[in-house]
Amino acid sequence: MSTGAIILSGGESRRFGGDPKALLPVGGVSGVRRLVELSHMVDLDPVLVVVGPHASAIAHELRGLDAELVDAARWHEGRTASVQAGVEAMPDDRDILLWPVDHPFVGRGTVESLLRARDEDLLAVWFTPVFEGKGGHPVLWRASVRRDVLDLRPDAPLRSLLPEFGPQVRRVEVDDPGVVANVDTPEEYRAAFREWERRGGY
Description:
By secondary structure, the protein is an alpha/beta fold. Helix content is 32%, strand content 21%. It has helices at 31-41, 55-61, 79-89, 108-120, 146-150, 162-165, 186-198, and strands at 3-9, 25-26, 29-30, 47-51, 68-71, 95-100, 126-131, 134-135, 139-141, 169-173. Strands 1, 4, 5, 6, 7, 8, 9 and 10 form an eight-stranded mixed sheet that branches. A two-stranded antiparallel sheet has the order 2-3. The longest helix has 13 residues, at 108-120. The radius of gyration is 16 Å and the shape is globular.
């Protein structure tokens, strides 16, 4: 099954003083560069990076990488508007890994676990990684979910779709705190970075 990646980096990073979270260092590279590189390591194609106010800085950071930037012109209407921009740019036949850039510490093994679960569970359409009982990101969708995502209001949370899919939502247990390490503030970033280093990085 062909799978593409949507790396979501369309916000304005207000809690970081307007500096793009996508450029926060994770090891020797920026978070957004790491996500693009990991996506290629597991053969995701295409790799789309949805951008908003920080488009030029992110484009400069990703120069030389095989990644297509998608402008989320309606990013200010809500996070789902940025997701929808990525979905519209994705070929219709692709399953989609949605990876917000504020989850930059997720390991390659987690993505591989999601892809493996998708290949093994032919009934599920939505795959969520779970660490210690808590769901996180990135999530994997079958191509059939795209219409439901595009039909949402731009300010409606994606999780509002979950009741509709019911038993077709698969929770995939992973040993990866990065899936729940939502880097929304400098304090959360520092805590997640320390845990990532403690567990050996990459």
